[in-house]
Amino acid sequence: MLKKLTFILPILVSSCSQYAEYTPSGDTLKDAITGTPYSAKIYIFGGRVIKPSFSMRLFPENTGLSLKPCDPLSVAQNNCILVEGIPKKPGSVTIKISGGLYGSMIVSSAGFHKEYTMNVISP
C-alpha cells in the first residue's frame, strides 16, 4: 500500500499545479529589419490571464514597435500579445510580460513572468 501511495501522490500533487507556457518557446523572437513592417505573436497558455495584474513592456520605448492584445474583444485577450510596427533603428529590444493566471476548483491561481529579446538589424 505504501508503495502505491508513494507512486500516486506525486502525480496527484503535480497535476494540481498551474504554470504558464509560452509560444514561441525560448527567449528570443525573430529578427526585425529597420524600415520594414514587423509582426510577431506571443501566446500564453496554462489558464486565462488576469487582466488587472497583467503587464507588458517594451524596452527601449522609442523603437517604432508596440505591444497590444491580438484580439481586444476576446475574453482571453491578454493570452495573445501582438508585437508590431516599423522598427526605426538597429539594436536590441527587450519585451517583458508578467501577470497572473486565474485558478479553478482544482488549481489555485499562479503568477508568471517572461522576457523576450529580439534584434533589429539594418537592411
TrEMBL record:
<protein>
    <recommendedName>
        <fullName>Lipoprotein</fullName>
    </recommendedName>
</protein>
<keyword id="KW-0732">Signal</keyword>
<feature type="signal peptide">
    <location>
        <begin position="1"/>
        <end position="20"/>
    </location>
</feature>
